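Listing S7. Sequence submitted for prediction.
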Amino acid sequence: MPVELDEVDRHILNVLQEDARSSFASIARELNVSEATIRFRVKKLTKKGVITRFIALLDPKKIGLSVTATIRAKVDPTLLEEAFEKLASFEEAHHIFQSTGQYDIIAVVHARNLGHLEKLRKRVKMVPGVEDAS
């Protein structure tokens, strides 16, 4: 069952998605509510699973990953779940999606260069159940 969110909850989520380091005090000032209200709301949203974690987003280029690309894979339907989990575990996989149509899995990946990207595509093809990857 979906969690009901009011305008305060939505604003808190928007601010934290933009910068998870935003202080409860600054969010409270924006909304003209107490810091305790924000603390309570964030705790509630976390407990209900709306907020699952606070993470740092990296700039791939700053750590030597200058190529962003998609790799599309055709997968044996009986091994789709296992292949998806394996591909999601790849360090280079930034986002991974199940899809309908010609490809069953689409992964957004970061690579150092085109050579690294090609090696990654070949690794994807070696995953059990993957019939083709491009």
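Caption to Listing S7: primary sequence and predicted structure tokens for the chain studied. The radius of gyration is 20 Å. The chain has a mean pLDDT of 96.
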